[in-house]
């Protein structure tokens, strides 16, 4: 890929917040607010993959869904090729939706069990009124071949496929409208390890062939390492570290990132690393800690950490970190 394309920003997320109000506990109390996403910013360049990683409940899936408009954002802007999606009228938004798709985590629950595989992949073409009957069928045939499925499997129902095959159907459906950007929301977490590798290789192959741009959401850094160009680490609704894949794995700075990486690397017989065990669970996003959100589980926490929330800053070229202290893995 040319250097000019690498630098072309396709998606820009700026200070995105997604808050959910819950029911009052009593008539006189305030409504509790879940700070699911609390000020997230990042760019994704054309043809690149940004990995969004963190523990369950950190807000990564909500971030992906907010980008696509599946959940309503509270604050912030989401721009696609320079167009602020929050200001786009409904008719134009319908056209833009063709260029932005999602692959869900569980391929079984994402597929209507009463529809055949062929009809499931055909649906987006019908909804957007693309082509005539013959052209639609040719497109479905092409998509099945593209994801490694047979033409005669179009007549089968989701329960007649394996987990990996069902995910291939989901991928084919996401590709039906020839999108530029796809949110991959834990696309392999429900699959066996051997099948995970097949699906990851398929996604990488499709990205190269179709020049796709991915937001790849996962809790597994080992998976993220194989498919992403950049990685953003989320914790309790905010990004605490962001860098290129090589830089993040070679020089993790934030204590949370280092703990996540130690869990991955400690399982490798070729790499000697001390396992960093995090104490406790992620705090409640309704009552998040004052100051640094990670301080309740951080062994480096000082008084300043409870008084002031660290800002995500570029501590070295291309390496961003939200921590009061200059930390390195060396």
Instruction: Give the C-alpha Rg.
Output: 21 Å
Alpha carbon gap, first and last residue: 33 Å
The strand line-up of the biggest sheet is: 6-7-8-3-9-10-12-11
Note the total helix count: 11
CATH architecture term of the domain at 3-99 and 181-190 and 211-321: 3-Layer(aba) Sandwich
Main sheet summary: 8 strands, mixed
Q: What is the mean pLDDT? A: 89
Uncertain regions: pLDDT < 50 for 5+ in a row?
Answer: 1-6
Strand content: 15-25%
Secondary structure tally: strands = 12
The class by helix and strand makeup works out as: alpha/beta
Helix proportion of residues, in percent?
25-40%
* Overall 3D shape: globular
Q: Return the CATH class of the domain at 3-99 and 181-190 and 211-321.
A: Alpha Beta
Q: Quick one: CATH superfamily of the domain at 3-99 and 181-190 and 211-321?
A: P-loop containing nucleotide triphosphate hydrolases
**CATH topology annotation of the domain at 3-99 and 181-190 and 211-321:** Rossmann fold
SSE pattern, N- to C-terminal: HEEEHEEHEHHHEHEHEEHHHEE
Plain-language structure description:
The structure is a single chain. This protein has a domain at 3-99 and 181-190 and 211-321: 3-Layer(aba) Sandwich (Rossmann fold). The protein is globular. The protein is built from eleven helices and twelve strands. Strand 7, helix 7 (193-210) and strand 8 form a beta-alpha-beta unit. The protein has 330 residues and is α/β, with parallel strands linked by helices.
